[in-house]
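Lay summary

Proteins are chains of building blocks that fold into shapes. Our project writes down both the chain and a compact code for its shape. Here are two examples, one after the other.
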Amino acid sequence: MNKNQNINKDTTMINTANLVKTYRRYKKPEGIRGSIASLFRREYEEKTAVNQIDLSIQAGEFVGLIGPNGAGKTTLIKMLTGIIAPTAGTINVMGYYPNDLKNAFKKQYAVVMGQKSQLFFELTVNDTLRLFKEIYEISEETFQANKNYFVQLFGVGDLMDVQVRTLSLGERMKMELIVALLHNPKILFLDEPTIGLDAVASKQIRSFLREINEKKGTTIILTSHYIEDIKTLCRRTIVVNHGTKLYDGATDELFERFQRNKRIKITFDSAVKTMRLRTGGAKLVVDEPYKKEYEVARQDAKALLAELMEHEPKDIVIEEEEIGIVVERIYQEGGNDNA
């Protein structure tokens, strides 16, 4: 298996300065009269999807990119991969201007999008991998070494001769990653890779990604709405909203500063009345006979949990605040000085 570990950790893989992407979109007044008027004079508006973003990512980093829908995350990734061109600013990825779309550049990165597949559904997994071997002009030796490594890593040996369309969502995502990594990319862009997966499959995918980053030295940029993905994989997180970078720094510091509450969900075998709790500040947000949900400050979560256990629940689930809430709080409080 060829590895990327010969890349110097001090190498800058991605660098942007004042990166901007604006779109011009057509606005049509409502109704038939508006449609007729638009034949003679059209009105347009400009939308800024990415606004003055400075970015520097080193080799081997595992970086989280988070923000609400429409924040500019996918647009940024599309510019970094050359799918769309920036409106202004400078951009350098591995020494290339991405939008030149040089073959030498395209062979050094990979993209996996949770909601878009690059697999061929009527082919078997083996035939799909063979097809990508030819697309990326991978030598037979490298192909076999990488294929064997990933098949063993993902535990998918029994799926190689079945049609892609018969795979479950979790199995398909494993194949998406194998296809993406087959040519030893230096950078892997991941856009919501665990979307729609159950807890077990999501945990497996996170484990695989961690090993690929650590063992092969692959630089990974991950966008996700799932806090667990970001917290368990990314030492560094970048937060964007309305196309602007709000935060760029340590993931631990981000959630320590801006994630202030937890939600505790508790279920019972039999109906339970509203409970009077000793823990101050706990807010009851769902009050049903067999189910209660509380929102509580992080520092009080342990005390509330201990108190709830006294009522002998059937099950307890502890959830972190959603990324959207964290982003909104960062936006209101001004992010950090490094953004």
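And here is the second example, written the same way.
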Amino acid sequence: MIEILNGMHETINYGDSLGLRLYHNVDYEDYPDHWHVGMELIMPIEKGYVVIVGKERYELEEGDIILMNSGVIHALEAPPTGERIILQFDTALLYTLKEMETLLFMMPAVFFYRKDPQDELYCFLKEKLDRIIREYDGNSAFREASIYAALIEIFVELGRREIYQSGQGKQAQSMKQQEYLEAVMNACNYINRHYMDNLTLEEVANVSGFSKFHFTRIFKQYMNMTFYEYLNSKRVKRAEELLYNKEMSITDVAMNSGFSSLSAFNRTFKTIKNCSPSDYRKQGKP
């Protein structure tokens, strides 16, 4: 299934303009630790499958669904017989939609759902995945648009149920809370567009319409991190992508990620990733 592997990095060959590929995988083949830029969704339809992420071992049974975020290192173990759906897709389209970049940033490494006909969210995800499979295997008009529409619906539902209702982005229960949530999302969208600039807390607070002290409090409440932690994480995420280009120097990576100096880049990167940019590149990561 893995066609292009450089160290631990898999380059996904989508093969067409969809930016998406779907396998009815029946291979009796294990895949060692690897990562890719695209997201990956797996659902066994006959027998099970094993997904290993770090120290977590997810033993999937028929109908279980697992979704792995971009850049997550994982390994796969297959049974001697069986079939599973493996969907890989580029998140580029989602990034063009308001709020989606912030949602993707806030997502955990893995979403895992056991088959449960009584679970409303599981049933929703299964319905949308079945639709994607039908569209991908068929050749109907507007096939590509229909697939991405289903993906967008999936992420909207995950965002509402798993992110904003789960504590770090609590769904608004009043007009004032709704106002705060919208202000934080607008601030995140602003940061996502301007992270290369010399952003300040005062500037982003002004965009939100609150004083910097009030903004600091509500941003931490809804994002579970400070403004500067979010900004630095955004810059480090961009640096991870640039580090895959071995011809780009570490200094160039720093400057093209929004950092004002190499020392600030090295210090911030090590704080977030627990290793230097040079070591990160040597480890076979992007």
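What can we say about the second shape? Residues 167-173 have pLDDT under 50 and may be disordered.
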